[in-house]
Design brief:
Radius of gyration: 18 Å
Helix content: over 70%
Structural class: mainly alpha
Strand content: under 5%
Number of helices: 4
Shape: elongated
Length: 150
C-alpha cells in the first residue's frame, strides 16, 4: 500500500511540475501579459496540489527505502534531497515573487531573471523526478529469468 501511495504521489508531483513548466514556457512565448499573470497565479494556487504530493512522495520514499543498501535507493534519496531544496529555496519563493510582480504588471529585467531561474530550477526538478520514477519502476520489476536454449 505504501509503495502505491509513493508511486501515486511521485506521479502527481512530476505531472504538476511539468504542467507548471510547460504553462510558464507557453505563456512567456505568447508575450501576453494577462496570460503570464494568469499562469503565475494558477501556479501559485497549484501549490496546494504540489506541496502535499512532494511531502507524501518524500516521506513514503524515505520510509520505503529505510534499511535498503541498494545504490539505486541511495541515489533516489540524494535526488529527493536536491528536489526538496530546489523546491523550497528556489521554486516556491519564485512562484510567490513572480505571481506578485505579474499581478502588478511588473515585467522588467528582474522578472525575466527570476523567471529564467524558475524555468531552470523547474527543468532540474522534472529531470530528477523523472530519474527517480525510472529507478522506482526498475526496483519494482521482477528479475527476468534467462532461459537457455538447448
Amino acid at each position: 500500500m505504501k509503495a502505491k501511495l509513493h508511486a501515486a504521489a511521485g506521479t502527481v508531483a512530476l505531472i504538476t511540475v511539468t504542467c507548471f513548466w510547460i504553462s510558464t514556457a507557453a505563456a512567456e512565448l505568447s508575450g501576453n501579459a494577462e496570460t503570464i499573470a494568469m499562469v503565475k497565479a494558477a501556479i501559485l494556487g497549484g501549490m496546494v496540489v504540489l506541496i502535499p504530493a512532494m511531502m507524501i512522495a518524500g516521506a513514503s520514499g524515505f520510509s520505503l527505502g529505510r534499511g535498503w543498501r541498494s545504490p539505486v535507493v541511495q541515489q533516489k534519496k540524494r535526488r529527493m534531497r536536491i528536489i526538496a531544496a530546489n523546491g523550497l529555496l528556489v521554486l516556491l519563493p519564485s512562484a510567490y515573487v513572480l505571481a506578485g510582480w505579474a499581478e502588478a504588471g511588473r515585467f522588467d529585467a528582474g522578472f525575466v531573471v527570476v523567471q529564467g531561474l524558475e524555468l531552470i530550477a523547474g527543468a532540474i526538478n522534472i529531470t530528477l523526478l523523472s530519474l527517480n520514477m525510472r529507478d522506482g519502476l526498475a526496483l519494482r520489476r521482477k528479475p527476468v529469468r534467462v532461459v537457455r536454449a538447448g
